[in-house]
Design a protein that fits this description.
Elements (H helix, E strand, L loop, with lengths): L7 H10 L3 H14 L12 H18 L1 H11 L3 H5 L6 H25 L1
Helix pairs in contact: 1-6, 2-6, 3-4, 3-6
């Protein structure tokens, strides 16, 4: 199964399509908790709202709590080579791309657990 989605919305669409959207939400909450970062999502949150909340949280971490941001990426296990490829210096664009990387990695975890 390919895990290369060009947009966060496609990742969330695949999660919904496979009946794993709630599991994805739970995995996100679990990993944020492991990183000691508050991030609560309602199980009925829309994919669009989730994308917005996640991007806002990442933006806040970049601006205010950079060490927590790095710890979160470590806990989630976002490959370092992927976020090192970010060419932009605009924090909004960076937070959008990092949110995508987070969702991509969380989707990989959830999908793999569901298959094995």
């Amino acid at each position: 199964m390919s895990h290369n989605f060009p947009k966060s919305s496609e990742i969330l669409g695949k999660a919904s399509e496979h009946g794993l959207y709630v599991k994805l939400l739970q995995q996100l909450e679990k990993d944020f908790e492991l990183a000691n970062i508050e991030f609560e999502v309602h199980l009925k949150i829309s994919p669009f709202e989730l994308q917005q909340q996640l991007q806002e949280k990442v933006y806040h971490l970049l601006m205010e709590k950079f060490n927590d941001y790095l710890n979160l990426l470590y806990v989630i296990d976002v490959p370092e080579k992927e976020f090192k490829q970010i060419a932009s210096t605009d924090l909004v664009e960076i937070s959008l791309f990092v949110s995508y990387l987070i969702l991509k990695r969380e989707w990989q975890k959830v999908w793999f657990k569901s298959k094995h």
